[in-house]
Structure formats: structure tokens, C-alpha cells
Amino acid sequence: MLIFIFIFIVIFAPPTIAADPQTEINFETQILPILQNRCFTCHSAPKPKGDLQLDSLNGIETSQHGEIIIPGEPENSRLYQRITLPEGETGIMPPPDTSEPLTTQEIDLIRKWMTQGADYGNWKGNQRQHKPLSTDTSAHQPTVMPPITALTFSPDGKSVVACSQAGLHIYDPQTLKRQRTIPVQARNIHALAFSPDGNRLAVGGGNPATTGTIEIFSWPNGKSLRTLSEHRDSVTAIAWQNPASLASASLDRDIMLWDLRTGTPTQRLKGHSRGVSALCFLEDKQTLVTTGVDQNVRVWNLTTGELIRSLNNHTLPAHDLALRPKQTGLPLVASASDDRTVRLWQPTIGRMVKFARLKAAPLKVAWLNNGTTIVTACADGTIRLIDPDSVEVTQEIPALNGWAYALALHPTDASIIVGGPNAQIKRVITKPSPPSQ
Questions:
Q1: What pLDDT digit, counting tens, does each position of 53-84 carry?
Q2: Domain check: are 87 and 185 in the same one?
Q3: pTM score of the predicted model
Q4: Within a domain: residue 7?
């Protein structure tokens, strides 16, 4: 009887789509059908959701979102990271409201195909390629615009600088009316930072999986002064150490320190196992804190170039860091992660102090000027204010339709600018808390 049952299972069991590790995975017959059924509905030209096109090879390779598919490295590929997020996590692909999760067999096939080198064969995909959308304000202006990827106020608070795949634009902070556009070299830009003296603006970006650049402009005239281009993937974050030096983070997993007088890197810090998404200096300017896709918060001694410590409490990729201003005692840094937490760290002693769990993943984090309130921009388009002592959310402000990718706080008042999909920019006014005693 047992032998009969065994024979029945072998003969009549449904075939599995999982493949033996030694069997070469064919993209067009095994992987493409999965993408067609689960991904192309949202991520196809000419208007791919989130400005991410997956229905063409060119769209995948030139995505402004970075390393979508990395041959030989599924764990570092954004596509694989998204399809393997735990159920219920923000950002899981495909979204629960559009399709069922991928099966274990489908995920296994994609992983093995990437591990084997992600060979697309002869597939090129949709020939009607998605193109960066024009920002022309004529009657033919498209209804979908590239997302705002970074925002910053000028040091005097009289201008808002915003970047997207459509370029670098300057807005009036009160009316948010566009005042001018500054030409940039990079195809995609993701990071903005003013120098300590306010006379220069650093713009980070590049071409995914090809090169990362930092272009330095004079301010306010917007003249290009210098371009730094040692990174091997898009630059995602910039922080000035002093008027003659800045640090940059990249999806190539490296952090670089630059001498702006010569335009050359003085240090290259290695330690992150995946792309680096954020960095910030402590007040001493010799301690640097970084974080990224590998979930770790890392602390560096720039005098020696040594990695002091790695803090691994986050359970999903981290997006941003912010140092608490006007801090007495040990420095306090806030981090924002896909695990829906904002965590507070004392990096000089390697301690996580506490954390706040939010309803949606925080994509950006900052502090009000007096250091009494944490401000987050979240994946549901909501601005959330957090009390750093109780780690309770004190206010929720609906701001955008879709993910809030970018956040900037006015240097003197309590106004906030938030940016996101379809070139949305909105001004939000908060009531600042009294300074800590």
C-alpha cells in the first residue's frame, strides 16, 4: 500500500516550477511570465508607477531607483529585496491590493536566475520606452511628472531647492512657485546640501550601476564649479565636513571624503555590504554616522579612517539619518527605516536609546530647529511628529498622495516642505514645542 501511494505521488503530483541549482534558468520562459503577471500592470511604459519601468531591459538598467537587478547578487538587488519583504511590510512587491504575493517557487526562480548572472537572452522588452517627463508648463504638459527626490532650504530661508529626474529647480518658499531651473550634468539626482558658508550647493546623483557624481555649484547664481566622479553608482547622500571638505554616500557601498580644493577623494570608507543611503557628521566633524540597505548604522572615526562600531537593530533597509540640534550631553542621532521605526542612537557609545514604531515606513527624518521634535516623511504621504522623550507620535499631517520621498525644514521658522510623486511639493506649518530645559 505504501509503495502504491509513493508511486501515485510521483506520477500525479503537480510539477514544481522550482529549478535545480545546476539547471540554467531561461528568462523568457520562466522569469518573464512572472514579471508579466505580477509587475507589468503597474511598472510599464509610458507611465510606470513610481517612475520604475520593468517591462524593458533599458528601463531596468537605467532606473533612477538604483540597482534593480544585479547579476550574481540577488540579495543586493532592489527587486529581490522588495519581493522578499515580510507580509504586511510597507514596500512589499507586488502590493497586497494589486496581486497575491509571489510564491516561494517564483521567488526561488528569480533568485536562481539572478545568481546565475541575470541573462535576459534576446529579450529587450517594450520598445516604447519610458522617458523622463517634460516639466514644460504648456497646454501639452503631461499629467504624470517625475517624483521629487530631495529638497533643501537655502541657508537664508528665501529659496527652496528641489531635484528630480526632470532637473534642479528653485521655488519660492511661501508660494512654491518655480523661480528658475539650474542645468545639471547627472541624469538622475538624489541629494542636495549647502556648504557651511552658504556660498555653494552640492548636488549628488549619477547613472545607476555606472557612475556617481557630485556637482558643486556657486550660490545663488548656480554656476557649475566642479564635478566629482569617483563613485561607481549613484550618489545618494552628501554632508559637508567644512567649507573645503564633504562626504558622499553611494549605492556602490562606499563612503568618500573629498578635498574640494583639488577635487580628489582623501578617504574611501568600506564596510557596508549594500548601498549606503544616508550619512551625517557629529558636531566634532571627525565622527561620521552612516546607514543603508544593509540595515546597519555604522560609526566611523575620520581621524584614523576606522569603523568604530556597527549597530544592527534595524530589521529592514534604512533610509535616513539626522543629528539632534542643540543637544547637551551625548550626541543623539535619529534613523528612519523600512521596518516602520525611527530609532534614536547615541553613536559615541554604541547605544540604541529607544524607538518609535509608525503606521507607515518613514522615508526621511529631521529635527525641528530647537531639537524638541522629530519630523518624519512617510510612505503613506503623511508627516508625523514624534516626541523624542516619550517616542510617541504627537501629530499626523496628511501631506501628499503617495510616498513622501523628500523633506526640508526651514532654518528659522517652523515650516516644512515635503515632496513626492508626480512632482508634488507642499508646505506644512507646525507649532514648535518649547525648548528643552
A1: 888 888 888 775 667 898 888 888 888 888 88
A2: no
A3: 0.72
A4: no
